[in-house]
Task: structure prediction
Amino acid sequence: MATAKAPVKKSSSAIKRAQQGEKRHARNTSVLSRLKTDEKKLRAALAISPDEAKPLFQKLTSALDKAAKLGVIHKNAASRKKSRLNIRISGGAAPVAVKKKSEAKKIDPKTKTKAKAKLSTKKK
Result:
């Protein structure tokens, strides 16, 4: 029979670090969720009109900077997002069409690759 191990005692510092990690995780997920929501709103506004997107861009820029300051995202990642969105607002890049997940998985029979065509003929 296997003997059960005695419970390991945690030091007070280990307990405190675990609590800090839980708090940070909750904060980070909240901030990331807000960033994603703000970015989706901005991209939707960009599809309608770049003029309507400017106040949303300022709000997202501020949120990205705060998230980078807290360490939720890297400062270069925040800078990269701001730069790419700024290009879109200024009209420098064409809007990217977002495909839905269900559309991406559908395969058109006309565009089957040779390997897929061979597999389908072997099954018959």
